[in-house]
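Dear Dr. V.,

Thank you for agreeing to look over these. As mentioned in my earlier message, I'm a first-year student in the group and I'm still getting used to reading structure tokens, so any feedback on how I've presented them would be very welcome. I ran two proteins. I've put each sequence directly above its structure. The first is here:
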Amino acid sequence: MTKQGDMNIIDTHGDDITKHIPKREGRIENIVKINTPWHVISPVKLLFLPMPYPDHYDWESSSGVLESANSTELNVQLYWNVEDGEKFIKAGTPLMQIIPLTEMNYNLICRDANEYELEWIKKRPYFNSFSFSPVKKKVREIYDRYFNRYYK
């Protein structure tokens, strides 16, 4: 597991990722990535969306889906719409929406990770890399078995 002190808090995704994404006029080429210390363990996929009706359009989050079996990291991917100069993001500024993709009711628990959850976060990179072919389905099965007690 990478520790927060071992990574850049603010980083970018370069051309290798962004070259296939249509670019709005006035937007920088890279996607700004904010690495947070937070992880999420969820039985459902989570939809990331930009904030509706923001006070400005200097940046906006990208849209995407997070499946905890593939990654538990809650990082923010921002399209930066100011080509020159600097912008300041105040602490507490909402950067994106996170919407659970389900019609079922779940109780949200926001707390520090326990040892069991931290063990998964350490093991997951291995599960995603133990084969030469995509293994998402198999990793999902391992994830479901590992966290079965949380889903009941």
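The second protein is here, in the same arrangement:
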Amino acid sequence: MSTSEPERCAYCGDVVAKGFGKTRDHVFPESLYPVSRRLTYSPITVAACESCNGRWSDDEEHFRNVVNSAGDFNPAAEELFLDKIKRSFRRPGGDRRIRDLLSMSEAAEVNGTTRLKIYPARDPRVLDIIRKIVVGLCHHYGIVTALNTKRIWADVLRFRVPGEYLAGLHYEQREADVVDYWYGLQTEPGLHSVWILRFYGRTTFIAVVSESEDGGFPWEGDARVNSD
């Protein structure tokens, strides 16, 4: 009889077994990758129950559309838009996805030109997927399983991270022009870990995990924190 620990869902912690609701979930949504990257990237997958695996599918597609449209195209982002995203707009529900993007767009001056700009951190669904990714990564790296998302503060990265700080974090990439990221456990009181996630080489999020199960953070109550 095996003495190994039973495998658990990365997101809820329930025991999962082959043939009894066990599936594999892509921590970084597979839909982020254009066809040309499918043969070269190494996906991170984790055990997940059927309920958790299906919970984010709609929001993950929305997340892909938002981060793809939130800045200038690199070749990977352009290929993805011209192929998978444009085709998705023609499928049932495509009108809703277009409206979702337009509702997030605002006119802004960029290098002297007026253009529509998207602000990903203003959409709770986008930040929910960032939290979901962090939960999956914590399980993948053996840090913690079924991390409570209340413990995760997430936002677009709004400041330059000093190079010496980044050098102290672990760096990984799953096709650097699609997804790369930094992470590390923290020693500052009240903090558990920090995660910096970059998509298409230009849209970067930061997620900080609290030591507290209630999600308390050292900066809460500081009026200087901009939650927009």
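From my reading of the second output: The longest strand covers residues 191-199. The helical segments are 50-55, 57-69, 75-89, 94-104, 124-140, 163-167. Does that match how you would interpret it?

Kind regards,
E.
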